[in-house]
Amino acid sequence: MTNYRGYIALFLMPTVALFLLVYAVSIVILFGTSFTEWSTGLKPAFIGFRNFVDMFAKDASFKDGFWNTALWVLLQSTLHVLIGLVFAIILNMKEFYWKFARTVFMFPNIISGAAVGMLFLCMLNPNFGAVNSIVRLFGDGEYAQNWFMDYATAFLSVTMTWLPYAAVVTILILAEIAAIPDSLFESARIDGASELKINLFIVIPMLRNIIGTCVILAGTSMLQKMDIIMMTTGGGPGNTTLNLPMYIYKTAMMDNNFGYSNAVGVFLIGFGIVFVLLVRYLFRIGNAST
Amino acid sequence: MNKTFFKTGGAIAGAVVLLASVTACGSNNSSSPNSGVSSSDNPSASTSASASASAQASEQIAPKAPVKIKYLTYRVGTHASAKLEAEQIKQFNAKYGNEVEVQVEEIPSDSAYEDKLKILAASGDIPDVVMGKNGINDILIKGNLATPFNDYLSQDPEWAKEIGDEALAANTRDGKVWSISDQKQTVGYFYNKEMFEKAGIKPAQTWDEFMSNNEKLKGAGFVPLALMTGENAWTTNLILASIVGTSGEAGNKFMNTLHPSDFNTPEMIDALGKVKTMLEKYTTKDAIGAGYANAANSFCQAKAAIIANGPWMIGDFSDTTKCAAGFDQKVGIAAFPGNGMISSYEVGYMNGGKTQETRDAAEKFIRFKTGLEGQRIALEFGNVVPVSDQVQPSDELKQKYPLLVESIEVGNQSQVHYGSFDSIVYPNVTDAWKLLYPELVFGKSTAEEIAKKLSEIAAKNK
């Protein structure tokens, strides 16, 4: 083992160098400038914690963005993962349709976010959108909506552009189910357990680690979600669909306030770390399955 | 064994080719005689005596290589000005290609261009020629990243004359001309003559008549207005700006003020109230949240009777991929009620060159684009209104686009002039309309509250 230490260091070096250059430097700059007043074209001026104080004390848009982000993280790490899990269990029954269903379920995940945004923008268009056309077929158009812009439907409409498409979760869980020894299933069946009981009391408990991982992946994906929001609502109407990544973009690019934007970025990173630690603790990720 | 040998050999050969190509790219960048970096700007140039001697010898023989300048443009693809941009660059290359090499980078959207320029400005690495639109000029001026044109203009008074005093004054701050405008915005509204005839109306003289026309159009079974509140709410805001701009002295002054900070004015509140009514009663169902393409499509497909927009849209009316054949014959143009028209000069081009050589080359490119030749190309290929009276549409263009001639006449007859919101407000205010209009229409905020919010947003700008 000792003989390989040099090689290990050598092979790790490019990754470490890349990490330091691309991420570490950026994060240090992000943290450093979050304590400054800094707009494009000017040098950063140190202002202590003022950005953070303003964020929590005065900024209603930040609060709206934070609550929306938190709600989306919660929905994605629960409902989204649940959908993926249920679908994985159904597919694991290996009925005649399972390969077809698995492929079709994957489609939304291989399309770029911007394209998905455009797709939904057309589908939910109040004039010619497919959804309103169907709604009008069953009535006089009373329930036809401006789905992305009406206060009553905007949040739900944006949420539906990503919440149901849990193919990544399904695939990860399917792979984990495949690793469960067949002998366990056989023993359960000999003992007279139904498929439902096998899934509830054997399969799902043994998936704890991968479900925890999926919760982290799904939840943290909401901390960087911006493309679809940008394509569809831009954070509106009002701040109804504003999230923190969108708010960071607006603060930096529109308000030209990089210092404040970076302070919100620091908060978002902190929020992400707390979320990951919490999920790791709840799911005891890394501990052997019992 | 053989397999392994070939695999290893192939991998090594691939790596060597990759390394060679990377090295070649690097060396080309660093030592290219065309880099445009003079020896005084590049200390490494004087480190080798022999290299310097041989360079001097070759300079005596070889002609001077063209200076390379970087230019980012969003006028590409389906952009209304894509054709004029391509033609201007083509003609510039034909005329000055041996002196200046323009390295064009295409950015396929206005907002992506603005974002990229802001990021580049933050790192101090802007292109040599920059379009200073939507607040980019402010950032470059504040960061001391651009060179004023005063010296160039005083050395070439003919060029200054071609641009005109008004256009130069529009982009002058504290006596420094920071950008050169390439076009004049003269915006009224287009209307569908057939629909107007069927509704028994003529272009309105007052805003009350305008609202009454909307009601008559609606009564005749037409959607009166092609509005949109997504993106920068362009077609809606042209009407909003016109209501404010024609409302009297105070409103007109407001619409001619750069970076207004207080939107809480009676004119603004009244205008927001009128636009609210238009959005509620007289436009398409998708107007709230719609983009420009939706509004343009509504008008071109004869689904709405009126669209506020500039003459650059005229070409679309005879483009059968956008409008039905013969649609251009049905379109009329009018000034806004109160004989008002949006009339402002674009921010235009800024010089971001970092060395004297690239600054001079950038100036040459900008001079071509904004001089009579460039303005003529813009008019002929993009229906863009020139900044100089010396440039007039050709007979061929007049025949092809009679509406363009009409639009120039309407512009000349209009008496009340003002800027568009995009040209006067801070970029964050431009970005806010798409969030605020739904608030207004869905009754979450009153016109007074929206005006107050606009002031708060403007105050956030750094």
Automatic annotation (TrEMBL), chain A:
<dbReference type="GO" id="GO:0005886">
    <property type="term" value="C:plasma membrane"/>
</dbReference>
<keyword id="KW-0472">Membrane</keyword>
<dbReference type="InterPro" id="IPR051393">
    <property type="entry name" value="ABC_transporter_permease"/>
</dbReference>
<dbReference type="InterPro" id="IPR035906">
    <property type="entry name" value="MetI-like_sf"/>
</dbReference>
<feature type="transmembrane region" description="Helical">
    <location>
        <begin position="162"/>
        <end position="180"/>
    </location>
</feature>
<feature type="transmembrane region" description="Helical">
    <location>
        <begin position="7"/>
        <end position="31"/>
    </location>
</feature>
<dbReference type="GO" id="GO:0055085">
    <property type="term" value="P:transmembrane transport"/>
</dbReference>
<keyword id="KW-1003">Cell membrane</keyword>
<keyword id="KW-0812">Transmembrane</keyword>
<protein>
    <submittedName>
        <fullName>Sugar ABC transporter permease</fullName>
    </submittedName>
</protein>
<dbReference type="Pfam" id="PF00528">
    <property type="entry name" value="BPD_transp_1"/>
</dbReference>
<comment type="similarity">
    <text>Belongs to the binding-protein-dependent transport system permease family.</text>
</comment>
<feature type="domain" description="ABC transmembrane type-1">
    <location>
        <begin position="66"/>
        <end position="279"/>
    </location>
</feature>
<keyword id="KW-0813">Transport</keyword>
<feature type="transmembrane region" description="Helical">
    <location>
        <begin position="200"/>
        <end position="223"/>
    </location>
</feature>
<feature type="transmembrane region" description="Helical">
    <location>
        <begin position="263"/>
        <end position="283"/>
    </location>
</feature>
<feature type="transmembrane region" description="Helical">
    <location>
        <begin position="103"/>
        <end position="126"/>
    </location>
</feature>
<feature type="transmembrane region" description="Helical">
    <location>
        <begin position="70"/>
        <end position="91"/>
    </location>
</feature>
<dbReference type="InterPro" id="IPR000515">
    <property type="entry name" value="MetI-like"/>
</dbReference>
<keyword id="KW-1133">Transmembrane helix</keyword>
From TrEMBL, chain B:
<keyword id="KW-1003">Cell membrane</keyword>
<feature type="region of interest" description="Disordered">
    <location>
        <begin position="29"/>
        <end position="51"/>
    </location>
</feature>
<protein>
    <submittedName>
        <fullName>Extracellular solute-binding protein</fullName>
    </submittedName>
</protein>
<dbReference type="InterPro" id="IPR050490">
    <property type="entry name" value="Bact_solute-bd_prot1"/>
</dbReference>
<keyword id="KW-0564">Palmitate</keyword>
<keyword id="KW-0449">Lipoprotein</keyword>
<dbReference type="Pfam" id="PF13416">
    <property type="entry name" value="SBP_bac_8"/>
</dbReference>
<keyword id="KW-0472">Membrane</keyword>
<keyword id="KW-0732">Signal</keyword>
<feature type="signal peptide">
    <location>
        <begin position="1"/>
        <end position="26"/>
    </location>
</feature>
<dbReference type="InterPro" id="IPR006059">
    <property type="entry name" value="SBP"/>
</dbReference>
